[in-house]
């Protein structure tokens, strides 16, 4: 049987097993130098294509830098400021006139088109038209009508806009060594009125104001 298979089959073949050092050296792949990226190589190159790419890069960078900053949203002005600005423009068209009127026990300087806060007017509702007859003085750019004590037939016309309350005032009471402490809050009621006009003062004797004010 051995002669039929030949001399190769008579003895088993030996398998060569590499040593540990050889296995480690063979397992690590050889160092391969990778080529540089095409973009940087062409940019560093002095070819026409490199110059075109560099120009495109500069344009792209400049477009990013020139992007406008986000604009801040402007808040609208308060309603009181808008009303005051509109009424001031309307009053500037006519004659500049003001008056000093007494409401209750207080005196107020009023201008047509503006609004004031007064002490609570009893019996007055919103949008009611009222007439103030206690006019102590009326003044214009050239004349002054001084009442004795009031300007006869002069009247200030107004419209009630709101019935509200003043800011709260804190009243604190304290007595030492008596364990007595009291805290009370109070809001005084008020009325907001808008002055619509000043009339009836033209027939009252006036004092002419000097054109130039002495120094």
UniProtKB/TrEMBL annotation:
What is this protein's record name?
50S ribosomal protein L21, chloroplastic
Q: Which SUPFAM superfamilies match?
A: L21p-like
Tell me the superkingdom of the source: Eukaryota
InterPro entries in the cross-refs = bL21-like, bL21-like_sf, Ribosomal_bL21, Ribosomal_bL21_CS
Any one cellular-component term (Gene Ontology): cytoplasm
Q: Gene symbol?
A: LOC109711006
Question: What family does the database annotate?
Answer: Belongs to the bacterial ribosomal protein bL21 family.
Q: Does the keyword Thylakoid apply?
A: no
Q: Name one GO molecular function term.
A: rRNA binding
Organism of origin? Ananas comosus
Cross-referenced HAMAP family? Ribosomal_bL21 (MF_01363)
User: Which UniProt keyword terms apply here?
Assistant: Ribonucleoprotein, Ribosomal protein, RNA-binding, rRNA-binding
Which BP terms does GO give this entry?
translation
């Amino acid at each position: 049987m051995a002669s039929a298979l030949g001399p190769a089959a008579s003895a088993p073949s030996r398998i060569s097993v590499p040593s540990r050092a050889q296995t480690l050296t063979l397992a690590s792949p050889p160092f391969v130098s990778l080529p540089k990226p095409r973009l940087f190589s062409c940019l560093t190159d002095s070819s026409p294509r490199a110059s075109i790419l560099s120009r495109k890069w500069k344009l792209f960078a400049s477009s990013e830098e020139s992007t406008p900053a986000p604009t801040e949203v402007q808040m609208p002005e308060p309603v009181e400021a808008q009303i005051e600005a509109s009424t001031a423009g309307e009053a500037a068209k006519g004659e500049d006139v003001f008056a000093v009127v007494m409401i209750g026990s207080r005196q107020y300087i009023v201008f047509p088109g503006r609004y004031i806060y007064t002490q609570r007017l009893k019996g007055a509702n919103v949008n009611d038209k009222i007439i103030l007859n206690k006019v102590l003085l009326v003044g214009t750019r050239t004349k002054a009508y001084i009442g004795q004590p009031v300007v006869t037939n002069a009247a200030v016309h107004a419209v009630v806009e709101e019935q509200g309350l003043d800011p709260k005032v804190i009243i604190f009471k304290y007595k030492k060594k008596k364990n007595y402490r009291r805290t009370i809050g109070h809001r005084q009621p008020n009325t907001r009125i808008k002055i619509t006009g000043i009339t009836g003062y033209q027939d009252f004797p006036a004092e002419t104001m000097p054109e130039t004010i002495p120094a």
